[in-house]
Amino acid sequence: MTATWVRLGAVGSTNDAARRLIAEGAADGTVVTATEQTAGRGRRGNTWASPPGNLYLSVILRPAAPASVLGQLGFVAAVALAETLAPLLGAGHTVALKWPNDVLVDDRKIAGILLECETAGTTVRWVIVGIGVNVANGPVVARVSATTMAALEIAITPEALAVGLIDALFAWRSVWQCDGFAPIRAAWLARAIGVGAIIRVNLERDSFEARFVALDDSGALVAELPGGARRLVAAGDVHLLGAA
Ligand code: BTN
């Protein structure tokens, strides 16, 4: 799989730039980067602070897969990101993955992933995997515990990071396409934090406490409620409250 690169200056959101390229017929493997975003989007309607100096990247994928498994691409991207960052950071730092798609270094968020897609019935038209990595700047939001490559004393440009990341992403995408979710799930679990812990699960209209007992074969979080009943969570946010 080869990448076609579209390198932009300031944009609203690279995911929106990718949508425009899709409308013009952009192929699977088109990668859009920008030097800054003026309307960067995060998950669950959050904004993603996007000053110059960080990595803002969106990849257009047109996978031959049913719509029901598209969420797995978030795990593909998270594993690829972790594999890209870990050798850069070295043994003195821990790169961890938090359900569903957060990438943390030493317990602080360094990167986020936003999936957007268009489906027609069970068919996938396109998926945009939007990835932001804090290279030079972290968000100035008190409640978010974030870090940056610069704060970790790693000198790398967004461009160099993007090239390494796309290599890893395309390699893991091929694994997913050929062998399914099992190897992705195993790689994700090898770096996961929170499995076995008590968590708060925040859904669109609901919030509850439970124990994070497993990641199922589709990528859903298996939550065990205080009475012992289990609940599958396909999309949402989790906060770690403590060990089991
Ligand atoms: C999150 O909330 O953790 C996901 C953040 C995703 C941010 C990236 S930056 C590139 C792409 N363009 C956007 O507007 N968002 C994603």
Give an overview in words.
The protein has 244 residues and is an alpha+beta fold. The chain has two domains: 4-190, 2-Layer Sandwich (BirA Bifunctional Protein, domain 2); 197-243, SH3 type barrels. It is built from four helices and 13 strands. The protein has helices at residues 14-23, 72-89, 158-179, 182-190, and strands spanning 4-11, 30-37, 55-61, 95-98, 102-105, 108-120, 123-133, 192-193, 198-202, 207-215, 221-224, 230-233, 237-242. The chain has an eight-stranded mixed beta sheet with strand order 1-2-3-7-6-5-4-8, sandwiched between helices. A hairpin with a 2-residue loop joins strand 5 and strand 6. Helix 2 (72-89) crosses helix 3 and helix 2 crosses helix 4. The longest helix has 22 residues, at 158-179. The termini are far apart. The structure holds biotin (BTN). The site of biotin has 19 residues, from helix 1, strand 3, strand 6 and strand 7.
List keywords for this structure.
244 residues, alpha+beta, BirA Bifunctional Protein, domain 2, SH3 type barrels, 2 domains, 8-stranded mixed β-sheet, 5-stranded antiparallel β-sheet, 4 helices, binds biotin
